[in-house]
Automatic annotation (TrEMBL), chain A:
Organism: Candidatus Cryosericum septentrionale
UniProt cross-references to InterPro entries, sorted A to Z: Ald_Oxase/Xan_DH_a/b, Ald_Oxase/Xan_DH_a/b_sf, Ald_Oxase/xanthine_DH-like, AldOxase/xan_DH_MoCoBD1, AldOxase/xan_DH_MoCoBD2, AldOxase/xan_DH_Mopterin-bd_sf
Pfam families: Ald_Xan_dh_C (PF01315), MoCoBD_1 (PF02738), MoCoBD_2 (PF20256)
Name the UniProt record assigns to this protein: Xanthine dehydrogenase family protein molybdopterin-binding subunit
GO molecular-function term, one example from the UniProt record: oxidoreductase activity
SMART domains named in the record: Ald_Xan_dh_C (SM01008)
Residue stretches making up the Aldehyde oxidase/xanthine dehydrogenase a/b hammerhead domain: 19-125
Signal sequence extent: none
TrEMBL record, chain B:
Pfam families reported in the protein's UniProt record: ThiS
Source organism of this protein record: Candidatus Cryosericum septentrionale
The protein's name in its UniProt record: MoaD/ThiS family protein
InterPro entries: Beta-grasp_dom_sf (IPR012675), Mopterin_synth/thiamin_S_b (IPR016155), ThiS/MoaD-like (IPR003749)
């Protein structure tokens, strides 16, 4: 399949989205539909003494009000540990907790009824700092304590390595509570069907897992629940975990009517998932020639109130805490700690942006102290295929650290950085810096990572590709269509895709972890191979041509032992009663050794990117602008160049937000940044000029040579921006985002 | 017939070893193994069964040489 050609097309979802005709879940309406309102907690930490819904129930237009006692199945959800109540019964742990659910004939009545729900609280002290939360006398968020997960990974002797080092860089770094801010907030409609089943229409990242989580909550057979996750108005990880689905499902089953909810931006920012803020203490030792000798890392992850994916995120951060550099002595320790600071879960990068901000900063400072070029020190330490990682597993496939580093060194921005740094105003300073990142792809060792796909030859000779993976902006369904079309030797317009839903699709795992493109490449290729076998079998049954005969795709049909047949001819013969179906399944390869005590580690495949950033700092105000970014990215084998550039554009913007603007401010458990007036995200006026450098180092374990790139494109730009501020001004930014206030105080430490 | 069972995550607690083999009579279903292990409650509700990358369900009739994976659909990064 090395010669596969991906026909370039516009996005398969472009027309509907560009013309506004695509019906998102928040656009849906059903006859007799009710509207839900989630009654949220009044306090970030409190015991619930009683809940009185009597006044709300009698309000005209209210159909039902549910409390914890009304949950028909298990009152909890969570991808790893179901410790988040759908409706809290005895305790609230953050301001977004739900204490009751209202269904009414209008949204306005539901809101009014929610205000009539009378909850008697016993307020508890708030714990809002992960390090404080680890102290024995800290208020306990959960009865079992505040430690969600503790992981320690060691290799060699880190103290000995640090003693032998000529330079040791030691700092504490802090990262923001970034919000995902998809255009479409959490929303959906739950529809009870006449046969007692439920249809759930809600944007999410894994319909088949939502189905099981909902079955657990409702106490229903999962096969009585259909989940439609597409289309999604953006996710970035915020819709990986359940959001509103459990609540509206309970209301729909109770009332027997469709129930809809569409959160306001304020409610989304208070109750929704966020990126985990990290406090990172890092000591990194180098020899005088730049060789890394040791890295000692301690991470404190502010988990917020519930587990969700905080454990795997901490572990992935620890896997990447020394990047894929050659470090003989490492100690990576992490604590995921419960607090009353909202809830944190999956977000693009999954812990890697946090730790690589720290590591790349230490690396840059060491280079400066040792008089080395920032490229030279990285080149000295990057690992290659066959070498052992900083956490002890062998890198068996496709390591491109050196390739992306070489490419970024040759970029226009880096080569001409001194020219780019010139300004004509003395208070404006410009700087350029670069950074490098791997990003583990897939779910990692110890978590079964699998996928299926079907290729159906329809009655008219066209095809339907069925695969569970959700599209939430990445462009994957376009890419999957191109893959199937390329394998079948047809134009992509002849391939229809059914995906992102439990009905008529097949489980292919979650759309997370930079896994969709790679996973689909192998599942679709397997389905294509099986399709050829099915064609041979069908011909043999009719013409006795031999069941083992090889059928190969060519020019809109297949060469077969019965001669060349177009797909229309094959369909006429074999797909009239039911489609001729190729089924393909794929299981990810796993790394060569487990990391004791670190579930999900290590990874087998990584994505790789290097980025250089040009910033301009106003030294009078501290305001920083990101002017230009160069990205060197290994795609393996590019399926769709336009989508790759789109991912880079979006990733750089999200990395820019992390580095310069975005942070959900929470004080004593109360969210202070409840809308885009105070929670600042980059706009089109802020995004930089881009220089794209696309490398193709085919991934050997993908049938089509492809890699996932959705996360890594936002990672190196973060340290690159922080280090470019240093290049411009001389100050080191160790607490992100680098807001004007922070940069100003670094520039003018004596000003009160 | 011989079937290999592989237990992941919380399902490891249901057997002394996370991987083991069973000699089973023909016609044994995946659901019978689930019941033999005694998986109940929320853990049963969140259980998926996987065979060579394919989700199978309780009624699946096991075949000689099958490797049946018990797991929860948790994610990772």
């Amino acid at each position: 399949m090395d010669d596969i050609r991906f026909e370039q097309i516009a996005r398969v979802d472009a027309q509907g989205k560009a013309c506004g005709t695509t019906a998102y879940m928040s656009d849906l309406s059903f006859p007799g539909m009710l509207y839900a309102w989630f009654v949220r907690s009044k306090y970030p930490h409190a015991l619930i003494k009683s809940v009185d819904v009597s006044k709300a129930m009698v309000l005209d237009g209210v159909v039902t009000v549910l409390t914890a006692a009304d949950v028909t199945g298990f009152n909890g959800f969570g991808i790893v540990n179901p410790d988040m109540p759908v409706i809290c019964g005895d305790k609230v742990r953050y301001m977004g907790d739900t204490v009751a659910l209202v269904a009414a004939t209008t949204e306005r009545i539901a809101e009014q009824a929610a205000a009539l729900v009378d909850v008697d609280y016993e307020v508890l002290p708030v714990v809002d700092d992960p390090i404080e939360a680890l102290k024995p006398d800290a208020p306990k968020v959960h009865d079992k304590g505040n430690v969600c997960l503790h992981t320690l990974i060691t290799k060699g002797d880190v103290e000995q390595g640090l003693r032998e080092a000529d330079v040791v860089i030691e700092h504490e770094y802090r990262t923001p509570r970034q919000a995902h801010t998809p255009l479409e907030t959490e929303s959906g409609v739950a529809v009870p069907e006449a046969d007692g089943s439920l249809s759930m229409y809600a944007g999410s990242q894994y319909a088949f897992r939502d189905q099981l989580q909902l079955a657990r909550i409702l106490g229903m057979n999962p096969r009585m629940i259909r989940v439609y996750s597409n289309p999604v108005g953006g996710g970035f990880g915020s819709k990986d975990e359940l959001t509103i689905q459990g609540g509206i499902a309970l209301l729909a089953m109770k009332t027997g009517k469709p129930v809809k909810v569409f959160l306001s931006r304020e409610e989304s920012l208070v109750s929704g998932w966020k990126r985990h803020p990290f406090i990172i203490r890092m000591r990194t030792g180098f020899k005088s020639d730049g060789t890394m000798l040791a890295n000692d890392v301690t991470c404190y992850e502010d988990k917020g109130a519930y587990s969700s994916l905080g454990g795997p995120i901490l572990n992935l951060a620890l896997e990447h805490a020394s990047s894929l550099y050659r470090v003989p002595n490492t100690r990576h320790e992490g604590w995921a700690v419960f607090t009353n600071n909202g809830v944190c879960g999956a977000m693009r990068g999954f812990g890697v942006p946090q730790v690589l901000f720290a590591l790349e900063s230490n690396m840059h400072e060491a280079a400066e102290k040792l008089g080395l070029d920032p490229v030279t020190i990285r080149r000295k330490n990057v690992l290659h295929q066959g070498e052992v990682s900083p956490i002890g597993h062998t890198l068996r496939t496709g390591v491109s650290m050196d390739l992306v580093l070489d490419a970024i060194e040759k970029s226009n921005l880096w080569q001409h950085r001194e020219e780019y740094k010139k300004t004509d105003k003395p208070w404006l300073r410009r700087g350029v810096a670069l950074a490098l990142a791997p990003q583990g792809a897939g779910l990692g060792l110890g978590i079964p990572d699998y996928a299926g796909a079907y290729i159906d030859l329809d009655r008219d000779g066209n095809f339907t590709l069925r695969i569970g993976l959700v599209e939430y902006g990445q462009g994957t369904h376009t890419g999957f269509t191109q893959m199937a079309a390329g394998l079948l030797h047809v134009h992509p317009s002849r391939v229809r895709i059914v995906a992102g839903q439990t009905e008529g699709s097949v489980d292919a795992g979650p759309a997370t972890a930079s896994r969709s493109t790679y996973t689909a490449s192998n599942a679709i290729a397997a389905a294509f191979r099986d399709f050829g076998v099915k064609v041979a079998g069908a011909l043999d049954a009719k013409y006795h041509t031999g069941a083992d005969a090889v059928c190969e795709a060519k020019d809109g049909g297949m060469t077969t032992p019965a001669g060349f047949r177009t797909y229309e001819e094959l369909a006429q013969e074999f797909s009239q009663e039911s489609p001729l179906r190729g089924e393909g399944y794929f299981v990810w390869p796993t790394a060569d050794r487990e990391i004791p005590g670190a579930a999900g580690l290590p990874h087998w495949i990584y994505s790789f990117a290097a980025q250089a950033a040009l910033v301009e700092v106003n030294t009078l105000t501290g305001e920083t602008h990101l002017l230009k970014v160069a990205t060197a990215l290994d795609t393996g084998h590019t399926v769709n160049p336009q989508q790759v550039e789109g991912q880079i554009d979006g990733g750089v913007a999200q990395g820019e937000g992390f580095a310069l603007f975005e942070d959900t401010l929470i004080a004593k458990g109360q969210v202070r940044t409840k809308n885009f007036s105070t929670y600042i995200i980059p706009t089109v006026q802020d995004v930089p000029e881009h220089e794209y450098i696309i490398l193709e180092n085919p991934e050997g374990t993908s049938a089509l040579g492809v890699r996932g790139i959705g996360e890594v494109v936002m990672v190196p730009v973060i340290p690159a921006v922080a280090l470019a501020i240093h290049d411009a001004t001389g100050v080191w930014v160790r607490h992100l985002p680098a807001t004007p206030e922070r940069v100003y105080r670094l520039l003018h430490p004596d000003v009160q | 017939m011989n079937v290999k069972i592989k237990l992941f995550q919380d399902y490891k607690q249901y057997h002394d070893t996370p991987e083991y083999e069973l000699e089973l009579p023909a016609g044994t279903t995946a659901g019978e193994i689930v019941r033999q292990l005694g998986i109940k409650g929320a853990e049963l509700a969140y259980l998926i069964l996987i065979l060579k990358g394919k989700r199978v369900y309780d009624e699946y009739v096991l075949q000689d040489g099958d490797e049946l994976v018990f797991a929860a659909p948790i994610g990772g990064g």
